[in-house]
Amino acid sequence: MEVDKILKSGQLKITPQRQAILRVLSTSDSFINAQMLFTRVLEILPGTNFSTVYRNLDTLVSKGILCRIPRDNGGDLYKIRREEGHHHHVICKGCGATIIIEFCPMEAIREKLEGLGFTPTDHRFEIYGYCDKCREGRQDKNI
Amino acid sequence: MEVDKILKSGQLKITPQRQAILRVLSTSDSFINAQMLFTRVLEILPGTNFSTVYRNLDTLVSKGILCRIPRDNGGDLYKIRREEGHHHHVICKGCGATIIIEFCPMEAIREKLEGLGFTPTDHRFEIYGYCDKCREGRQDKNI
DNA sequence: CTAATTGCAAATTGTTTGCAGTTTA
DNA sequence: TAAACTGCAAACAATTTGCAATTAG
Q1: Residue of A118, A130, A131, A135 to mutate for B, most B C-beta atoms under 10 A
Q2: Nearest by CB to B127, which of A90, A113, A128?
Q3: Cα A126 vs. chain centroid, distance in angstroms?
Q4: Planar angle of CA A72, A75, A78, nearest 5 degrees
């Protein structure tokens, strides 16, 4: 979808900064972190401030326009949410490329959880590994 | 398992600080963050330094003695790994209590991923929600 | 004895905030 | 024009690091 349309769909004002952020994010299906995003935004809109980027990441996530996943070290990763509905990600640790999967493990165990007296509200499911391309480039082929 | 035995099993030296850290963690099945852990460690071993706690959390995770999960806001959570083998967690957002589940979604899709030319190396699967007790205490019962 | 570990203090990293000026709808 | 948004600079929280002193095996 067009960047401006995305912003309108979220009832957000169209600003050059937001356009830049979404332009960067919409050119790839990979997750990137805020720092990297900031660097790329600067290339197409010099002078943009880091706080603006952070504020907008929060805003865009809260509008459901972006996916955010927390990483082990801290430093969340962001990616534009292209597909509708619930889904999960397969993420290449080499290049960051992602594959969307429809499969959701919750269906398989929701019932069991309720039997345990637990009410699930949300969940996290991500798969990490290497795509063929990145795996070939690694020293240790036996990952 | 006894705290000292755990340390030995990880080929780690037994220090009062490590004992304190493990004593805190072994008294509960909940995930807690580094700050909270530090506070509790201070109670049983005053003077312990924060950097020591951080260093040991890293060490203990790398030895497989602790589980670490990243949170949305940053600030990872830690918990002693009691059960052997592969498992996942159900985590109460109210009290932090956890339930271990044996079910692993990877089995269901590993084959499919390989068909896509993707080699999975690790994955994350956690379920968040509320246990009966915590749910009752909430304003909004319809979570 | 010696390699591992600790405390300390300072540095770093990543992110957030208040506010005044600017821009969008 | 009113509310939303931005840049700036400063604050912040959480974590990490170098190093000298201490301690466990």
Answers
A1: A118
A2: A113
A3: 11
A4: 105
Residues with Cβ within 8 Å of B99's Cβ and at least 6 positions away in sequence, in order, are A116, A118, B89, B90
> Is B88 within 8 Å of B66 (Cβ atoms)?
no
How far apart are alpha carbons A84 and A86 in whole angstroms? Answer: 7
Residues contacting B125, CB < 8 A, separation 6+: A105, A123, A124, A125, B88, B104, B105
Cβ distance of B125 and A123 shorter than 8 Å: yes
φ/ψ of A52, rounded to 5, equals -65, -40
Cα within 13 Å of Cα(A89), Cβ side: 23
Asked whether the beta carbons of B3 and B22 are under 8 A apart, the reply is yes
Provide the number of CB pairs (under 8 Å) joining chain A to chain B.
Answer: 120
A132 contacts in B (CB within 8 Å)?
117-119
Give the C-alpha separation, B138 to A41, whole Å. 42
Instruction: Give the tens place of pLDDT for each residue, A46-93.
Output: 999 999 999 999 999 999 999 999 876 667 899 999 887 899 999 998
Q: How do residues B53-76 score in pLDDT, each as one tens digit?
A: 999 999 999 999 999 998 776 689
What region, left, alpha or beta, does residue B121 occupy, with left being phi > 0 and alpha being psi -120 to 50 degrees?
Answer: alpha
| Alpha-carbon span A123 to B131, nearest angstrom | 15
Lookup result for tokens 């896509």: B116
Q: What is the pTM of this model?
A: 0.84
